[in-house]
Amino acid sequence: MLILTCPYCGVDAEETELAPGGEAHLKRFGPGASDEEFRDYLFARENPKGVHFERWRHAHGCGKWFHAARCTMTLEVFGTYPAQTTKPPKAIREAITAKRPGWTWREFE
């Protein structure tokens, strides 16, 4: 079972207490976006076998959205952080790199 710590209220919540929200750190386009930008926002998603950054909502708790870095194969959680964060915190990226040398995904720098 997947257990994530809510960065707001500090509760270790089981996945039954959470609601998934898809991929984290997507650039959302507003009015005036090109057809290609809007298409990519709707349909172009990472679906890695391994480390992934996701959005979750603590639905049966504080109700707030947050991000989680986890491995989709092993359910290993590298950390959680507030949804308002525009890129994964350095400590989480370093924890992933320490366990998975050579790991790359997106450039957040």
Question: Key terms for this structure?
Answer:
about 110 residues; alpha+beta; Folate-binding fold; four-stranded antiparallel β-sheet; 6 strands
Description:
The chain has two helices and six strands, in the order βββαβββα. With 109 residues, it is of the alpha+beta class. The protein has one domain: Folate-binding superfamily (Folate-binding fold). It has a four-stranded antiparallel sheet with strand order 3-4-5-6, with helices on one face. A hairpin with a 7-residue loop joins strand 4 (51-57) and strand 5 (65-71). The longest helix has 10 residues, at 90-99. The radius of gyration is 15 Å and the shape is globular. The model has no long low-confidence stretch (mean pLDDT 90). One of its GO terms (biological process) is tetrahydrofolate metabolic process. Pfam families: SoxD. This is Sarcosine oxidase subunit delta.
Number of helices: 2
CATH class: Alpha Beta
**Largest β sheet strand count, sense and barrel closure:** 4 strands, antiparallel
- Global mean pLDDT: 90
Structural class: alpha+beta
Oligomer: single chain
The CA-CA distance between the termini, in Å, is 32 Å
Write down how many β-strands occur, each being a DSSP E stretch of 2 or more residues: 6
Tell me the radius of gyration.
15 Å
Task: Give start-end ranges of low-pLDDT stretches.
Answer: none
Q: What is the strand content?
A: 25-35%
Q: Which CATH architecture?
A: 2-Layer Sandwich
Can you tell me the number of structural domains?
1
What's the order of the H and E elements? Answer: EEEHEEEH
Which descriptor suits the 3D outline? globular
CATH 4th-level superfamily: Folate-binding superfamily
CATH topology: Folate-binding fold
Helix percentage range: 10-25%
Sheet with the most strands: spatial strand order: 3-4-5-6
